[in-house]
Every structure is written in structure tokens, then in C-alpha cells.
Amino acid sequence: MIGLASGSWAQVVANHPAVEHLTIVEINPGYLELIPRYPQVASPLENPKVRIVIDDGRRWLRRDPDQKFDLIVMNTTFHWRAHASNLLSVEFLQLVGEHLQPGGILFYNTTGSGRVQLTGTTLFPYGLRIINFLAVSKSPIRADEDRFRKTLLQYRIDGRPVADFNSPAHRQRLQEILALAHPGTVSDTEQFLSSEYAETIRQRYAKLRLITDDNMGTEWDEPGGPEKEGRDANRGN
To answer: What does the alpha-carbon distance between residue 34 and residue 7 come to, in Å, rounded to a whole number?
Structure first.
């Protein structure tokens, strides 16, 4: 995991039923003082499956070329914020690819950016967008509803179920989430719950430029500026 921050994502990933070990690289040591103040996210600091390294994520990956992972997760900040390109560029994705095990996946927040999604699905042949996150890999990615359901039903955080599936509202929410296992479909009740494979992402954003260390993506633009124009142009075609 690149970035610990407040610890909420670390809490979720560390408690995934299939996770055996989680390495977290965080640049700001101050979070280690902040997180214990909030019980709902504090336990990863004491979780024996979790190792926390204080370092810059990109630098750490460069210095540890032998480290390989089944999954690398980044809850990346907004694509237009300063230094966001450090985690979104062609060069960084190439570096991450060198640290993935065969079949490994990079899962990161695109914050709704077409350029981020196009860059990821160009550097990796296989991809799956889940809401505003993108999973990319050198190996095929296929959503599996049965596995998805089984995992959600098993999920515990600090030993407590994440939901009460005896509740009608929770069962309804489960079905909405499971709709994500059918890329190309959208939930009837919540339109933002959608997913799609890489092929349609590449088609939709084909006219946009990839993010590189040199062009710095949209760091110099207002949110939705040139990128929005690219989306509008694609709609016209």
C-alpha cells in the first residue's frame, strides 16, 4: 500500500479475509501519532500482518527492486493536485509493474480522470474500472460475483462483521455492490455504482494524452479543463 494517511484503507485491506501480509509505505511519520486517537482505524498499527515503512513510495520501490506483491493499492489524491503525477505517470506505472507478482494487480484511485484511466489501461493490457478506482494488470482480470459475495459475507474488521445481512437495507446494499461484478452495467438505484473493462476506457479516452513525468498530467490545469474538453469531443464522435 502506497500511503497510510488516516488508516481507513489500511484497516479495510489488512482485514480482507485473503490477506496474509500488508506492507505500507507512508512518507509522513505524523500519521503514526494521529491514528491511535481514533479507535476505528487504530488496530492496523498493532496488527501482526502489517508492516509500516516511513519513506517516499516511489523511492522505496526503486531501492527495493526485489520486493514483489500480489496487489499494490493506492488511494491516490485528486489528479489535479500538486505532485499527483508522481503516482499517476507512465514512468511510475512502469516502476509498479516491475514489483507485481505474475497475475498481480495495481488498484488505485483515478478520481474520475479520463487521462488517469487511459494511462493505466495503456501501460497495462488488462484493466477494470470500479466506480472511480482502476484495477490494472499484465494478466486478465475478470469479475466474479460468487467470489465477491463470499468475500463480503466473510468480512470482519476487528472481529466484527462489516454489515448485518439479516437487515433488509443491508441486503439491498449488498445487491447494489454486487452489480459491480457485471462490468458495463449500472445500479438502478445508484447510478455512480458502475464498472467497465479496459477496452471501453481506451476507446472513450483515445484522444487524450497519457500522463508522464514531463507533462505532469493535469497538475497545471483547473479541474475538468482540457480533460473535460477531450471528453466532450469524444461524445461528439
So the answer is: 10
